[in-house]
Amino acid sequence: MAKVGDSRTAPGVHIVDIPITKLFNKQGVRYVRIPTEDPTGSETPGPSGGNYTELPIPHSQLSAGVAAAGARGKYHLLKLLAQLACVGCFVAGRRCGPTLLIAFIVYLYVNGILALGVLLVSSMRALYNICDQLLYHPEQPETSRTHVGLPSTMNLPYEEVTLKTSDGVRLHSFLIKQEDNFESAPTILYLHGNAGNIGHRLAHAQGLFHTSKVNILLLEYRGYGRSEGTPSESGLYRDALAGMDFLLNHPGIDKRYIILFGRSLGGAVAVYVASHQKYSSQLAAVILENTFTSIPSLAKVIVPYKAIRYVPRIFYKSVFPSEDRISRICCPVLFVSGLADTLIPPSMMRKLHTKCPANFKRLVTFESGGHNQTWQCRDYFEICRDFVEEVKSAVDFNGGPESTVWPKDQLSVHVTADIL
């Protein structure tokens, strides 16, 4: 005798689909009646004259049987819908001919292009938004936003100042001042790189302060250290201009000797200020150290995917196009390049030096200089000191550095120096 749920068929018995209406209770047990073609004495006559075998159904098998019956019902429904769809397509094809097929293909083609376009735009938008996250790292090292070292730890006399930008952002800064000749000393506006805060630049500032005898305004970008706001390309430009305005309006600063210093990202900000129509004539000189030609050009070098080469510049949120702006700088420029820089190719510094039209320019390369360690090379501070003194002398005696031309043998200097 066949069992419910058994895939095998007993001799003379055919298992049929079991409608739920044929399930019944008898003395508290669930039974099912299965029609048979070869009845025996144990079979019960059916109401229509046929014979049935009554089989008890355990609860677990009953649930499985009901579920299977429901699944078969859904299958038949889907089969019916598919048949209706085929008939509909056939009728439509007969009535519309190839026009319907062509229209359908065009529909898929156009929507495919639109979908691809949406995908590309979404990808570029993601790249646009993630650009700043990859470029600015005010949180590195971990305590950069909570702890800023003071110049007093380096025995540097200073004044803690707060600058306000044109868009209302308050910037934290240090003005490190020469005690004996504050009003006559050149002043450097120091523009740092893309990580850390101004406290991390104190050791470098100390060397410039004592060797070159300069005042230094250590400016902390928005979103860095104890400054307000969030970093962005336009925001950093506003920050640097706020620093320039502070120096130009400070009663104790000699306006003839304002020098920009920019390392890495700060170099790109310095190029912007030096090429600015309002401020270019207010500068005595610029010092650029290990900076880049532009963010898109740098991305093509450091991003390991060839596809980045084909991303249009418009999709970069931050561009910093120094290569385009350097051609508008005519004040003296000192280019400091570490040949061991593994982040920014030294070739970019050479390109900026070549494109700069200033008569008073010099490229100094340090053989063992890394991206953040070039200032630790031997003769570094002496080279900066000589540059500052030459600029100051040109202002004092020649009516301005623009009219001074350095000897050709001083346009490019190579230093085979070891890191101290």
TrEMBL record:
Coiled-coil regions in this chain?
A: none
Domain Serine hydrolase span(s) in chain numbering: 235-371
Lineage, uppermost ranks: Eukaryota, Metazoa, Ecdysozoa, Arthropoda, Chelicerata
Is Ion transport found in the keyword set? Answer: no
Q: Where is this region: Disordered?
A: 35-54
State what protein this is by name.
Answer: Abhydrolase domain-containing protein 13-like
Which species expresses this protein natively?
Answer: Tropilaelaps mercedesae
Bilayer-crossing residues are: 100-121
One cellular component term (GO) for this entry is:
membrane
Q: Which Pfam families match?
A: FSH1
